[in-house]
Amino acid sequence: MKKIFITLAFMLFMPYAILMADSGLPSYNRQIVSFKHDKTWESITCVQDSYDETLWYYISNKPRLAENQNGNPMMKLVSFQKNQKAGVRKDGGIFQCAVNLSLPSDALSKLKKELANSIDMPESKITLAPLDMKNAKFMVYTTHGDLLGDQIIALEIGSSFANECLPIQMTLDNLSVSATESLTKGTDGLQVYFLFDYDVFTPESSIKVTASYDKAFEHFSENSKASISARKWFILGSRADTSLASLREDLTHSGVLEIESIDGEELTEERMDKIIQPVLEKLIYELYEIKTPEKIETVKSERLKKEISKFWFNLIENMTLKSEKTRKTGELVYDFRAHSVATRRAVVGGTLSLDGYSEAQRQEAIQTVDPTYWKNAYYSLPTISKALKCVDEITLTVSFLYKGKQAGGTEKQLVKWNKNKGWVNAKNEDCIGLEFPLQYFYKLKGDKNVNFSEDLEFQQSFQITYMEGNDTKIKTFTSTVPAFTNSIPISIPMVGVTYIELNAKSDYLTWDKDIYKSGEYKDLKSNLTKIGVKFETKNPSSRVITNLTSKNTSAGLWFDNIFDKKTGLYIIPQISATYTFYNGKLAKAMNTKDKRTIVLEKEDALSEGSSIIFMDDDYMPIEKPETYK
Q1: CB 132 within 8 A of CB 161
Q2: Would you tell me which of 175, 197, 298, 546 could form a disulfide with 93, CB atoms 3.0–4.6 Å apart?
Q3: Coil, helix or strand for 259?
Q4: Are the CB atoms for 368 and 214 separated by under 8 Å?
């Protein structure tokens, strides 16, 4: 089963209908497009769709601070200095912001024009769309290159678009007074970087590649030059001084790779290099881990057309081989006669500052507090992506609890999410988080240094309206999370539910009476009438069943997560899956058990993610049965 799972969302409200195109699977055809915009060079990665050659996904080169409806920056930094008596051992802060990686409309127009020139395609035929992303880490540095904090950005519900906007809430360490003052004055900013993955659709060919994780681990352990070359190519791609051909030759010569032509196709170097990329990326991805650099060299030039961010080289230096216990073992086999999904890695970074905003706006965004007297407790809103096709609306009510009851001096707060506006509060204003006053508890205790954090919790009640087929359904759940992280009043809540989105659209799946477009089955009619989906969990015991057809190609399914009292976190239950493809003609030719269906079972339905795209290659054998006509 081919799956794409996405954990990163950037959710600014997109005014361009073209950006909300139905997102598919990118191919391996990638273009780096550079153009000048507002006196600086933009360097944008564009990736072609695997099915529609006129559709291109773009990755912006830098983050931009989002603004609310009134034009104010969606950023708040609450800073504090160390206080041993209050249990605060170093300077720091609570950082809230909304960051987007989308491009302004005039920049998008330039991008489309330059892309059209690069690929020799009429500009009018090109469609630009957001790229689906997953597995993101967010890192914050001072402009001098000192790490302030890093955080895994995990999408709470569903898949996400790379060019949307992400509400972020995190604690920063060692935030100096000078850094805070420079932000307030608008003279300096914070360096922010996203390290993320995205999935691509492998090309189709008659080549089979076998890679040995064990031999690769041994080779990279003993040969530092080979290790450096592999890491450079993995992070920098075509911009590395290491060519793909030399890397392939080295790994083939050392016995790591075996490349075989299935039907005698001529294996030219150009052909092999085009095919081999997903194998090498998977190999390096599974053998290396990337640690957050504690210190980075700052980038002095904005002319990204000529200079690659030095941060990327810091990442290369911080890539280390996994241990014998945690690394992947055995063999990796890619048979390119069948399509599959592979993972690519990318980095986006830049400086966030309040330059250009009024003094009043900057003062509002930056706050300094006494760490013994927090004015508010901060609740971070979950990241929800507009990529969700089945979710229409989410209503969230948050209560502030003291010893299990509504805390004195506070009220319940209600916010709503929909695809057009994102999160808005009761006044219909954009919001990225909620604040609850703490003054009551200082008065109650009569002593600023008394710790009452363990008695405070957030109770979150979600009501999710979604579509299942043609039916509107509502999912509700309530959970509680601690209001404080250590001694800091910040909570990043985990949603107590797992959402699985199924998609069986005709781009990658051939339904009944349609013609197969490629491979062994090309020009033959399909006999696929239905896909039966069954998900089951053992602890707690539950079962969800749904069917997909050519007229009902998507479904959204929900599972309650398990609350772990020891950690205070919700754990995704083990979900097994049974997929039943009703294709009598192919089933009979394959001599299946009931001659009508082809059944696939997976012990871990979420092993590759929670957004599942069905493909012909999921259930059809690579070599066509002789009796299938």
Answers
A1: yes
A2: 175
A3: strand
A4: no
Q: Cis before residue 104, ω within 30 degrees of 0?
A: no
pLDDT at 494: 74
233-241 long-range CB contacts below 8 Å, 24 or more apart?
Answer: 233/280, 234/280, 234/281, 234/284, 234/285, 234/288, 234/319, 234/345, 235/312, 235/315, 235/316, 235/319, 235/345, 235/347, 236/308, 236/312, 236/316, 237/30, 238/30, 238/32, 239/32, 239/308
Q: Return d(Cα 105, Cα 369) in angstroms, integer.
A: 39
Structure tokens at 271: 């052909």
Structure tokens at 297: 């060299």
Closest CA to 383 of 369, 396, 399: 396
Determine the Cα–Cα distance for residues 395 and 387; give it in Å rounded to an integer: 18
Helix (H, G, I), strand (E, B) or coil at 86: helix
| Three state DSSP letters for 101-158 | CCCCHHHHHHHHHHHHHHHCCCHHHCEEEECECEEEEEEEEECCCEEEEEEEECCCEC
């090498």: which residue's tokens?
280
Amino acid at 194: F
> Residue 137 corresponds to which tokens in the numbers above?
């880490």
Identify the bridge partners of residue 245 per DSSP, sorted by sequence position. Answer: none
C-alpha span between 589 and 378 (Å, rounded): 61
25-80 pLDDT, tens digit per residue, is 899 888 889 888 887 778 888 999 988 999 999 988 788 888 888 889 999 898 88
Global model pTM greater than 0.85: no
C-alpha angle 83/85/90, rounded to 5°? Answer: 30
